[in-house]
Amino acid sequence: MLVAEEDGELLGYVGCGTNRDPNAPAEAGEVRSMFVGSSAWRRGVGRALMDAALDDLHERGYTAAVVWSFADNDPANAFYERMSFTRDGGERSNEAWAHIPEVRYRRSL
Hints:
Layout: E1 2-6, E2 9-18, E3 28-36, H1 45-59, E4 64-70, H2 74-82, E5 86-92, E6 102-108
Parallel strand pairs: 3-4
Antiparallel strand pairs: 1-2, 2-3, 4-6, 5-6
């Protein structure tokens, strides 16, 4: 878990590590969670957090990264696409998220 803070205020966080998908290729790590508070949007916080997570995954020996996102979360999906992630065809829904459709994004490291 990596965090961004300013003057003691939490701006955002990102968690990354081993891919939790049971069918995931060994070379792909996962960005497991990411959040940036609205007060920090468009200030480079999300990019800095994602860059740090991708660097961390690369240092662990992964050559690719995946991130799951809600299919209709247009702002998050646009951010992932700006960070060079592309949809790879993976889809799922989970009871814990009220079966809201999710899509998987992937990129090389």
